[in-house]
């Protein structure tokens, strides 16, 4: 499988894909924490809506761009999508309204949905041999699967050192590196011998082939089942962890020696004032004690 990495163009494109995946994975973690900062206990609703917007963008944007991939200047388009995602990642830490999250997520995921089919459309032209093409697809699938494990682990390690806002800037760096790797290679143009089809045929052909294949329909059902369980983890983890952590922090503070001593002094002072403090006339804390009674 790794033998295809000997091809310089594919090696650079694959590295660009991996780095971009890691960057967007960091941003997914940071997005959950951003939702909690903005919406608090309603962060699950905000994050769930944002992920639904992501799916809508992929369902409607990806087929259109996939159908047009052969007609676009691919390298320029891939770099433009990386820079668009980087611009959104820069803006996300500075927003404080829920609707701004939704708008930026739609722009971000539309760019991602446009990047993926364009990238995949370049592989058969870069690697015309069927064996190499099959290995490249397997390697690309492996990168997607490993990213779902490595990105949260990397984000957790970084969060022990920095605040979550810095994860967005890590995403920006990754996307800039991805754009630079794409610029460093020459991507072949789509062969002119491909049949000329209409816009509707180009944009819906892949979906119709997918749904017409029984094994792929079964795979679709399996993916839906996995996504249904995974969505609960993605949406609710931040709310549960941050909420439980806040409760534990408040409890530990209330039981600390300093808190207990402060509470004892306050109660003693209030008791003295209520029963007639012998130094009431000269007590410097008379007003404070009276307010606390």
UniProtKB/TrEMBL annotation:
One of its GO terms (cellular component) is plasma membrane. This is Putative Major facilitator superfamily MFS 1. The keyword Cell membrane applies. It comes from the Bacteria. It is a multi-pass membrane protein. GO terms for molecular function: transmembrane transporter activity. The lineage of its organism: Bacteria, Pseudomonadati, Pseudomonadota, Alphaproteobacteria, Hyphomicrobiales. The chain crosses the membrane at residues 12-36, 42-65, 166-187, 218-241. The keyword Transmembrane helix applies. PANTHER family: INTEGRAL MEMBRANE EFFLUX PROTEIN-RELATED, MAJOR FACILITATOR SUPERFAMILY ASSOCIATED DOMAIN-CONTAINING PROTEIN. Gene3D superfamilies: MFS general substrate transporter like domains. Keywords: Cell membrane, Membrane, Transmembrane, Transmembrane helix. Pfam families: MFS_1 (PF07690). InterPro entries: MFS, MFS_trans_sf. It is found in: Cell membrane.
């Amino acid at each position: 499988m790794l033998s295809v990495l000997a091809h310089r163009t594919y090696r650079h494109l694959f590295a660009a894909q991996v780095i971009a995946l890691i960057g967007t994975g960091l941003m997914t973690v940071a997005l959950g924490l951003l939702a909690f900062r903005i919406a608090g206990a309603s962060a699950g609703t905000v994050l769930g809506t944002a992920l639904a917007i992501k799916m809508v963008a992929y369902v409607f944007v990806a087929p259109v761009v996939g159908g047009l991939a052969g007609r676009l200047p691919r390298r320029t388009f891939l770099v433009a999508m990386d820079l668009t995602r980087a611009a959104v990642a820069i803006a996300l830490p500075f927003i404080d309204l829920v609707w701004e999250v939704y708008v930026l997520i739609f722009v971000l995921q539309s760019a991602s949905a446009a990047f993926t089919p364009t990238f995949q459309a370049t592989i058969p032209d870069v690697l015309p041999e069927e064996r190499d093409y099959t290995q490249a697809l397997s390697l690309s699938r492996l990168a997607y699967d490993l990213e779902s494990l490595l990105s949260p682990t990397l984000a957790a390690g970084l969060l022990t050192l920095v605040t979550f806002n810095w994860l967005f800037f890590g995403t920006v760096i990754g996307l800039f590196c991805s754009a630079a790797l794409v610029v460093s290679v020459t991507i072949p143009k789509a062969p002119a011998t491909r049949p000329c089809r209409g816009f509707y045929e180009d944009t819906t052909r892949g979906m119709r082939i997918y749904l017409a294949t029984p094994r792929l329909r079964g795979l679709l059902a399996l993916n839906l089942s996995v996504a249904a369980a995974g969505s609960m983890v993605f949406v609710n983890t931040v709310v549960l962890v941050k909420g439980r952590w806040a409760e534990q922090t408040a409890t530990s503070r209330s039981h600390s020696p300093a808190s207990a001593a402060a509470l004892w002094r306050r109660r003693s002072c209030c008791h003295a004032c209520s029963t007639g403090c012998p130094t009431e006339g000269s007590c410097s804390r008379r007003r404070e004690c009276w307010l606390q009674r």
